[in-house]
Amino acid sequence: MKRGIFILLIVSIFLTGCWNRRELNELAITLAIGIDKSDDEYLVSAQVVVPSEVSMKGGKGGSPVTLIQGRGETVYEAIRKMTKGLSRKMYPGHLRMLVISESLAKEGIGDPLDLISRDWEIRSDFYVAVAKDTTAEQILNVQTPLETIPANKMFSTLKVSEENWAATVGVTLDQLITDLRSDGKEAVLTGILVTGKPEIGSSKQNVETITPAASIKLDDLAVFKDDKLIGWLTEDESRGYNGIINQVKNTVGTVSCPEGGKADIEVLRFNTKVKGNVKNGSPEVAVQVKIEANIGAIECPIDITKPESIETLEKAYEKAVEETINHSISNVQEKYETDIFGFGNAIHRSNPKEWKTMKKHWDQQFTDLVANVKVDVKILKTGTVNNSVVEKGKD
Amino acid sequence: MLPTVKINSYQFLVLVILFTIGTSILVIPSALAANAKQDAWIAAILGMGIGLLIVWLFTKIGLWFPNLTYIQVNETLFGKWIGNIFSFLFIFMTFLYTAILLYYSGSFLTIHVMPNTPMAATNILLAIILVMAVRLGLETVARSAEIFIVIFFILFFILVVFIAPEVEFKNIQPVLETDINKIFQSSLPLIVLSAMNAISLLMIFPAFINRPRSAKKYFLIGNIIGGLIITIITTLCILVLGSDMTAFQKFPGYELAKKINIGNFVTRIEAMMAALWIICLYFKMVIYFYAAVIGLAQMFQLKDYRPLTYPLGMIVVILSLVIFPNILEQSVYDATIDIYFALTVCLLLPLLMVVVYAIRKKQLKKNSDHA
Q: Which CATH superfamily is domain A240-395 in?
């Protein structure tokens, strides 16, 4: 009995509660972080959820999120300095977006990313994006309709757009770090920008009209060399890029019909294989694309009840995809000289011995690299109708 | 004088599996990938193969004298003085490893789960159940291991199935890029952790097992199963995280669990997966501590080993707190000193035993006949 009581007393020392517990109402749940740099100081902005405004009972009509900022010589310092203006400690465990300003990206993103990958609370499943032509602070300062929390809006937009249009690519932190550390692939990030009047974006007014005065939009891809941003792709090049790295799930392509006019092809399945090879000491890659598609829309006089016309469309789309991909490869080779496509990794996989000598001056090798693009399109269905709406039935 | 409890072969198998997996599951993928890159899985298999040879040597040594523990074998072979010096080395090693494992578990918990908790708190809690287990005796430990191995395999199965969608076979190519020498070198830590350190199990095998001859088979099978699990985890780390990320992380196994995402519904279950490592870590620690305590008791020919558990337990806690001033000292120790230390105690000494046994075989037989 005495022994039991003694043990109970000892145990109660340890069972008083968690050591450094932090209850839900002591946390500032941060969904987006933006990093800017000005005058050798980091300006970190955090979009923090206001729980009472997003609760099921409905809030008082205030903003669902609030922005807190801190300045410091390092990102960590800036984040901790935020507590000066915040009653709760930041909790980044549910982070969705990390936005880096363009000017900081041009200087290099390696240093600020270190903290983010070292910290124990931050997971690696959020997207990283670059604020194009603006500051990260500005991006986080816009109210959005549909999704009350702007960070969620950005996250979902990136996801939906990546899956349905394929000109953007959602890069998660671990993917980005892998790219930054890899010899055979350079990083890309999606650009994100504010359209309209950013001054109004911050107020609740912004979501009270049908057309918001300011809104957040995704833009094309930013090209990196090592950890520095060196330029932007165009939309077509971005789509070509996505095609090469096999990120396309679903997209729409437009082709010209032989007799003028346009037709839309709805891509259902898109599969790319990149194979490296070394011929006479110079690297080569073979890009093989297999596409399964439906006809999305016909806006030209073509009789799609005939199998031949399907073939024509297939050929036309094959050519179009081939051109897009070739175009984005050659443009990146000429303009940026940085291997964002991971061709180096493909060579590494196929010819590990040659790669060892090649990787030292891979940027040069990459610019001279020959890419053989082969596209195979199969159109399976024509949608719910046969011929075009305006095409009259033949007498 | 000492406990006469005997465990059966299956219980021994369970202990061997948990011991083999032990710390390896947490740190080995990173260590293997650092040198062998995407060929880390080959290094794991190679390490397993070489490890098996070493374990086979241990079973041979054990079965010379089916009723004696390793400490007693030492004394029989080398005589009182030299034997005791070797035994002391062995006890010192197992005791040190207990403290190191306590440090491991403490640092894992404080890095990933509870960063503001002082390591003393986690270590004291773990040390309490450690001492408790050893006081209750081998049979209790073995029985609880039987229960925990089921939990372990369920969790492991969940981990493997749930992480399967994230696998990318690109990550493992090109196969065999690293030359075989380097692969061999990088598999050395695995051999040390999983096979050489298994010499501690000679405190249980064969003296405390009811049928030592059949247990020999289980010793090897347990080592194979444990090795396979480590190989699977390493391969998954490479396939999912890529070789670079695997080497980049301190605890890649934990990072692997973080990656689990089934339809945005089954996510963030890494804390549950941490139970995997804690279970293995705990049982490996118990076996080390048990070997140290029993070994000390036998060396000094005590009637009961239990009085030793409290003071040694306290020393272990303190040692675990002061043993490494910071985490880098630990990685340096693991990569350099520990390997030579383990090679000496766990490979050179047993080989010396083989030589001595070959010379003194006849004489020893005569002695045992007299007795």
A: Nutrient germinant receptor protein C, domain 3 (3.30.300.210)
